[in-house]
Amino acid sequence: MNLLVLYLLLLKASVTSFSGLGSLPMVRDDFVVERHLLTDHQLNMAVVAGRTGPGPFGLYLVCVAYAVSGIPGAFMGFLALITPAFLVIPLMRWIGARADIPRVRSAIRGLLLASAGLLLSSSVPLTLDAFTGVFSVILMVASFAVLTFTRIDSAWLMLGAAGAGLAASLFR
Amino acid sequence: MNPQSPLPSVEKLTEIFFRIGNTTFGGGYVTIGMLGRELVDTRHWISAEKFDLAFAIARVTPGTNLIAFCAAIGALICGVAGAIGAVMALTAPSSALAVLIAYGFERWQGNRIAMAAIGGTVAAVAGMMWATIWIILKPHVGGTTWKGMARNLQVVLIAGGAFVASRIFGLTPLPIILAGALIGFLWKDAKS
User: Fold this and answer.
1) What is the separation of C-alpha A144 from the centre of its chain, rounded to a whole number of angstroms?
2) What are the residues whose beta carbons fall under 8 Å from the beta carbon of B34, sequence distance 6 or more?
């Protein structure tokens, strides 16, 4: 795939999202549904790789780009990941002066809610892909509960899930 | 800003972002908390008010909030060079590590033990995605008062509408996000 096109597709996903995984719906739309460059399983693996190490959750974009075009692609993914961040500098001046306007706050809220709805839409096929039986459901529910109701670091959660997957395979 | 704390060099600032950004697991909120402890409480390089402003504006900056937050803090402390240094120090090493992990996943595709472990983490990530959705929605859910119910209705209509538009009608995300912002702008939140 042309690296510039790859960069622009990832930049589009990155610049239209407002959280690390917020770009997932657009990435899935472009790379899985429209262009068939990745399968849902590959996208899932990219998300896992991005969340296994330290750093922001948005790192999965680098892994998506790596899965599509190798190391040069990963570099494009990295650029697409960091480019929008620098918008914060002019925004600090512009929004800083308008952040208290109720309609601006309300528009931002509408945008966040729509992002959550889109993330919900993307999570359905990825959850179905991750489903391999009762044990995977237990892990999903446990993961949800740990992140929602405790302050346990997600790194421990990932390690625990890997260990549980291993243990389950030994007992099969 | 504490006047007794001289501003650091770009190198020193970059070092802090490198250390905290690449050793903290758990995503944006955890890393931001660690940076606050170091930059505001320990080193007094930035005031709590400016730290909070950077956090709020990073939340509405397109892209990954944590990276925008680092750019904002870097810019506030050391200007544009500080923003570039902070972002690079936070993301470059962890991106390289993520690629190595992705490469490892590819190599281990045929290994039964490795795939069992990866299968466990894939299921955990699915659960994490649902938790992320709840974390995004939770602050916007109101109570059982009339105003709270109006907020809840807005959550259901915008988030639910976005879900239906994407999942059922197959609309692409960009118009859905823009529609969400427009609805929010026109339908002013009761709390606003």
Assistant:
1) 16
2) B20, B24
Q: What is the pLDDT of residues A77-129, one digit of tens each?
A: 999 999 999 999 998 878 767 767 888 778 878 877 887 888 888 788 878 88
d(CA B107, nearest CA chain A) in Å: 12
Where does the pLDDT of residue B1 fall: very low under 50, low under 70, confident under 90, or very high at 90 and above?
A: very low
Q: 3-class DSSP state for residue B26? A: coil
- Give how far A74 is from chain B: nearest CA, Å: 7
CA distance B91 to A55: 7
CB-CB contact of A30 with B75 (8 Å): no
Which of A85, A118, A148 lies at the smallest CB-CB distance from B131?
A: A148
pTM for the predicted model, two decimal places: 0.71
CB distance B91–A132 less than 8 Å? Answer: no
Helix (H) / strand (E) element for B63: namely none
The backbone torsions φ and ψ at residue B82, rounded to the nearest 5 degrees and listed phi first, read: -65, -40
Q: What is the complex's ipTM, to 2 decimals?
A: 0.70
The minimal CB distance from B167 to the residues A15, A102, A124 is found for A124
Tokens of B189: 């939140």
Say if residues B167 and A126 touch (Cβ distance below 8 Å): no
Name the residue of chain A whose CA is nearest to B58's CA: A88
Q: What's the one-letter identity of residue B134?
A: W
